[in-house]
Design brief:
The structure is a homodimer.
Chain A (H helix, E strand, L loop, with lengths): L3 E4 L3 H11 L5 E6 H6 L1 H7 L1 H4 L2 E5 L8 H13 L7 E6 L1 H13 L5 E6 L2 H7 L4 E6 L2 E8 L4 E4 L9 H18 L1 H9 L2 H4 L4 H20 L15 H13 L6 H20 L3 H15 L9 H9 L10 E8 L2 E8 L1 H13 L1
Helix pairs in contact in A: 5-6, 6-7, 7-8, 7-11, 8-9, 8-11, 8-13, 12-13, 12-15, 13-14, 13-16
């Protein structure tokens, strides 16, 4: 029951033909306040499958990816007499696809769902891999299920209304996939200027996204329950999460994708120190990130707190060691690498000096 | 990842060796108020794996198989720092295994669980098939997931404290499995007196349960998502559910298993009328049910209400027809049989006259 990935900017046609393929079932559409306003009206006026659909609206934002929103969706499905044959279309960013996917996975022990990501991050990251869920007890994605969509329809149509910061946030995950894949893929990404080019050249962006999603898909498929290879996708995230949590704790939060971009740079430095990752590629990558994302405002006095945060990362089963995915070259990741505090500090120092 | 079925009355040894096989993880035990009182102390004092386990207690009864109890379990797992490696042991009847199985299936996107059913119905029915879930919005099992336990440990040890009515309720499902399987299996069941023999001959009962569970298991395995063969397990349930709902609506509820036993008799009559099911077997079966379960207090004036209830059964996709699993002989079930109102009324008339 592999999930179908449809890359197209002819979204209307794609949705209608998909719903017909699914046997023209009753359709429920999940939107948040943003997509209800910016995206739903377009589809509602042009898509046959949206015309008679029952719309369920949830509050926007990760803080609403919670058990209250989940119960509201369950209730509207139940009161709307959704059956095992019905289909939910999740129209939104990662919050909507995570929440709606989990609601679908658990309603009557599982009904079908389709994701239409409306953000770049959602398209690249959240819509593939079968991870659904909600935050609970103050913990991200504490409750959830592995459940794949029937199909994910990926287009760049809805990105025009996104703020630049959100585009860059999604692009950081694509850069990560490039590093995990090959010099060629990475070079294509570093040549593309997501900020200035994306409005005018959405087909080129769509092809870059397709490449990126397929890299993730191949990794996930070889390791559906996250025991081995899938953990290469943590590249950049040990340092990145520490930056993100640090910034949050000091009341100056940074977007997740920015933290990942900076984390990638530091982990490439660490890869250079420990695994002889090529210096030139490292510098090129760092220059692209600095140009587009700026730099994380790092000071030496912050090191102990950052290292403590890395230690508490949930990927670290043994608290005395700090775990990384590192690269010996572009396309050659190694999971379960450990680094000493001294090595991490050396990498952070080099990052500051760049 | 097939679920292991362990039939034994040496429960202590079975639990400890199973937990060792699972890598001696942290153990959480889910009990309800009843099993906390009657069963947990025995295991806690004798089982090594229970000695250090974290106990989570839920309220008893189907009305507490709800989202509040679910959230309480999620919270205690989260606060108890359960990891993906931890194991939940569900110790109780079908309510506990359904609820605990669903909590396990959704905590951190799925952790392992073991069922130890403490009722006959739980042993025969609820612990096999991977159905987990909760009631929601007034509907039974409206929310849930298909998720199999690592293992189910089935014993008759805990049945001594059960009221006779509960034993009979579970035995009705075993009778159904007998009808679906073979003349030999059915004859063994009709020769056994669950009320008087079960206290003294628990090993014989354990063998009968093993046979019964394997019948269900084979059916479920050939059809995990309930599209075809598995629906033979609905035998007796179209009429049975109508009896159960009718009795509930008239403020004189009957146990589920009793309604199923009576439903089986009426559906055998219908099988006789429509599919030439052997008369002698039908009469033998009806006599056993009458002797042990009595009769459903049926009157002709109740027919329209009963038929309306059958029409609204969730198994009936098309409301104008009423759907049954019927038998042309013991061991020869046919799904998707329809019967007219006239035929159903004829069967109910014959039931009244018996």
């Amino acid at each position: 029951m592999a999930q179908k990935l449809i890359f197209t900017n002819l979204v209307i046609e794609a949705v209608d033909s998909l719903v017909a393929d699914l046997g023209s079932p009753r359709v429920f559409v999940l939107v948040d306040m943003n997509t209800a306003h910016f995206v739903l009206p377009i589809l509602k006026s042009q898509c046959k499958s949206f015309a008679d659909a029952t719309v369920i609206t949830t509050l926007a934002g990760d803080s609403n990816k919670n058990v209250d929103s989940l119960q509201k969706i369950w209730k509207e499905l139940s009161q709307g007499e959704a059956t095992r044959n019905s289909v939910i279309i999740n129209l939104g960013g990662g919050m909507v696809t995570d929440l709606g996917g989990f609601a679908a996975a658990t309603f009557k022990r599982g009904i079908r769902f389709v994701n239409i990501p409306t953000t770049l991050l959602g398209a690249v990251d959240a819509a593939v891999g079968g991870k659904t869920g909600i935050n609970f007890n103050g913990l991200k994605n504490e409750i959830g299920a592995f459940s794949e969509a029937e199909a994910v329809i990926i287009s760049t149509l809805f990105f025009n209304t996104l703020p630049q910061q959100q585009l860059l946030s999604g692009y950081a995950e694509m850069l990560k996939h490039g590093l995990l894949d090959s010099d060629k893929t990475l070079a294509d990404l570093l040549r593309y200027d997501i900020v200035t080019e994306s409005a005018g050249s959405s087909d080129r962006l769509l092809r870059l996204i397709e490449e990126s999603v397929n890299i993730k898909k191949n990794t996930v498929e070889s390791d559906p329950t996250e025991k081995g290879l899938r953990r290469t996708l943590n590249l950049g995230h040990t340092i990145g999460h520490a930056f993100e949590s640090f910034a949050m704790a000091h009341q100056s939060p940074v977007p997740h994708g920015y933290a990942v971009a900076w984390g990638l740079v530091v982990e490439l430095i660490l890869s250079r120190l420990k695994m002889d990752f090529p210096a030139e590629t490292m510098q090129q990558f760092a220059a692209y990130v600095k140009e587009n994302y700026g730099k994380f405002p790092l000071q030496c006095k912050d090191y102990p707190e950052l290292i403590a945060l890395m230690r508490h990362d949930k990927k670290n089963a043994v608290a005395s060691e700090i775990n990384f995915t590192l690269l010996s070259a572009v396309g050659s990741p190694h999971i379960d690498c450990t680094a000493t505090e001294k090595e991490i500090i050396a990498a952070l120092d080099l990052y500051q000096d760049m």
